[in-house]
């Protein structure tokens, strides 16, 4: 009897806590964008080629393993830094156990490994657990170099010799 009462109380609490209020017409609109557009999990080498190597914006590639504790600690930090950049850089997550060929191709000997890729080429690399400040500097450097390359390309197009 006591167990049933406790179960009912817990169920009622969970139900109450999971109810979401819908905004009324007087409320200001809420943003429905998610990190899904800023990050994705690579499914296979073909997916990697299409979404990472052919990307128009820089891509940060996170090589991780589900059993790796430092990887689990790194993921939210990396997602946060990428989200701050609002689509100017993308995060691609590669599970090394599901994509061993990719891990071998990019010489991933331990995890976590973070690669910065721009125009299909590796431009920088970090190995191991990193704090958010170091991740920000890493991502900002890649973005800055991408912008400089784009400006040079635009100048060459505008002033052909």
UniProtKB/TrEMBL annotation:
InterPro entries: Thioredoxin (IPR005746), Thioredoxin-like_sf (IPR036249), Thioredoxin_domain (IPR013766). SUPFAM superfamilies: Thioredoxin-like (SSF52833). Keywords: Disulfide bond, Electron transport, Redox-active center, Transport. GO terms for biological process: cell redox homeostasis. It comes from the Eukaryota. The keyword Disulfide bond applies. Residues 21-42 are annotated as: Disordered. PROSITE patterns: THIOREDOXIN_2. Pfam families: Thioredoxin. GO terms for molecular function: protein-disulfide reductase activity. The keyword Disulfide bond applies. Residues 31-144 form the Thioredoxin domain. Residues 21-37 have a biased composition (Polar residues). One of its GO terms (cellular component) is mitochondrion. Belongs to the thioredoxin family. This is Thioredoxin domain-containing protein. It comes from Polyplax serrata. The lineage of its organism: Eukaryota, Metazoa, Ecdysozoa, Arthropoda, Hexapoda.
